[in-house]
């Protein structure tokens, strides 16, 4: 790579002796869009930062955390499979991340590491900005009760919905999730055979399962004719950008909301925790979208 390529910001930002390092860890990690998104955010705001992807296998997690402190890495995003295991290395864990039981963002304040979870709040910010600004009083149906669902249910519970219903193939998992956050909102669990009735009552229906994800793009978690045409259909999947669930729901007259926004805004919150500045979300989205075509 030439010096001029760096100066032009083609592969990253201008790097000098003041540059602050950031990154994402995962196993695997080479597919991650976070580096292009975050380096665009640094360029856009003029912050002298550089963001890298680090392939960290589970056995190297402790060494990496020592490296965060030794190298003064200011911020780290944490992805699969480390979101739980990283927690024991934190000096402090934010209340939301504690409740969710997973950390996806680390802030390093002079060696003191704080863990946050921006997935759920990122999703909710995206839903409000892109599809439904007012969640208070809404009936929300969440399909799936895995790790992603957990963060989202926690964040939705803080928005004063009239109720949250969690449907899952194995109902015990939905019941367990509902139980965790029952003190925060009116939350109930149902099995998938009750989905049709629940869809008929819901203002917002969110797919948090992997059903419909590439390469199984013909699959869909529900029959969208069950939805109210006034409902919002939302999918966490962003590959494809429009799942069969969303395409069908759109045909049915529903407003639709794809999963890319969750990715953008989980990163936007991380950027804001690290830098104290508003994230340039539109530019971040533009860069990620360009990389997908
Ligand atoms: P994530 O962290 O992405 O949420 P996960 O914890 O493995 O991943 O959860 C996947 C969710 O998708 C679960 O709710 C799972 O249902 P079960 O708890 O019954 O396993 C759901 N899921 C995955 N494949 C599914 C399928 N083919 N049909 C219905 N639900 C499915």
From TrEMBL:
Superkingdom of this protein's organism: Bacteria
Residues bound to NADP(+): 144-148, 236, 259
Active site: 83
Top-level EC class as recorded in UniProt: oxidoreductase
Residues annotated as domain SDH C-terminal: 259-289
Keyword NADP included in the entry's annotation: yes
CDD domains found in the cross-reference section: NAD_bind_Shikimate_DH (cd01065)
Keywords for the protein's UniProt record, in alphabetical order: Amino-acid biosynthesis, Aromatic amino acid biosynthesis, NADP, Oxidoreductase
Pfam families: SDH_C (PF18317), Shikimate_DH (PF01488), Shikimate_dh_N (PF08501)
Catalytic activity: shikimate + NADP(+) = 3-dehydroshikimate + NADPH + H(+)
EC number of the protein: 1.1.1.25
Residues given in the record as shikimate binding sites: 32-34, 79, 104, 119, 238, 266
Residue spans crossing the bilayer: none
Pathway: Metabolic intermediate biosynthesis; chorismate biosynthesis; chorismate from D-erythrose 4-phosphate and phosphoenolpyruvate: step 4/7
Annotated ranges, domain Shikimate dehydrogenase substrate binding N-terminal: 24-106
Residue span(s) of domain Quinate/shikimate 5-dehydrogenase/glutamyl-tRNA reductase: 130-210
PANTHER family referenced in this protein's UniProt entry, alphabetically: BIFUNCTIONAL 3-DEHYDROQUINATE DEHYDRATASE_SHIKIMATE DEHYDROGENASE, CHLOROPLASTIC, SHIKIMATE DEHYDROGENASE
UniProt similarity note: Belongs to the shikimate dehydrogenase family.
Quaternary structure annotation from Swiss-Prot or TrEMBL: Homodimer.
Main function: Involved in the biosynthesis of the chorismate, which leads to the biosynthesis of aromatic amino acids. Catalyzes the reversible NADPH linked reduction of 3-dehydroshikimate (DHSA) to yield shikimate (SA).
Record's protein name: Shikimate dehydrogenase (NADP(+))
Taxonomic lineage: Bacteria, Bacillati, Bacillota, Bacilli, Bacillales
């Amino acid at each position: 790579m030439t010096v001029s390529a760096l100066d032009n910001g083609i592969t990253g930002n201008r790097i000098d002796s003041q540059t602050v390092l950031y990154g994402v860890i995962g196993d695997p990690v080479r597919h991650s869009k976070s580096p292009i998104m975050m380096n665009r955010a640094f360029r856009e705001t003029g912050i002298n930062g550089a963001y890298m992807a680090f392939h960290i296998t589970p056995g190297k997690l402790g060494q990496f955390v020592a490296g965060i402190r030794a190298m003064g890495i200011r911020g780290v995003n944490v992805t699969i499979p480390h979101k739980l295991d990283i927690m024991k290395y934190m000096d402090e864990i934010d209340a939301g991340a504690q409740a969710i039981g997973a950390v996806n963002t680390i802030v390093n304040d002079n060696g003191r590491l704080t863990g946050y979870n921006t997935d759920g709040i990122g999703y909710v910010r995206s839903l409000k900005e892109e599809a439904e600004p007012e969640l208070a009083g809404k009936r929300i149906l969440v399909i799936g009760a895995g790790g992603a669902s957990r963060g989202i249910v926690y964040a939705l519970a803080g928005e004063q919905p009239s109720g949250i219903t969690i449907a899952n193939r194995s109902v015990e998992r939905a019941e367990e999730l509902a139980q965790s956050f029952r003190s925060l909102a009116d939350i109930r669990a149902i099995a998938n055979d009750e989905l049709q009735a629940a869809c008929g009552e819901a203002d917002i229906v969110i797919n948090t399962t992997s059903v419909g994800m590439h390469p199984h793009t013909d699959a869909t978690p529900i029959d969208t004719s069950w939805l109210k045409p006034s409902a919002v259909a939302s999918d966490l999947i962003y590959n494809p950008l429009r799942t069969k669930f969303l395409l069908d729901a759109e045909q049915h007259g529903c407003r639709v909301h794809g999963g890319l926004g969750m990715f953008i805004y989980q990163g936007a919150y991380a950027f804001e925790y690290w830098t104290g500045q508003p994230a340039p979300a539109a530019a971040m989205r533009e860069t990620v979208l360009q990389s997908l075509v």
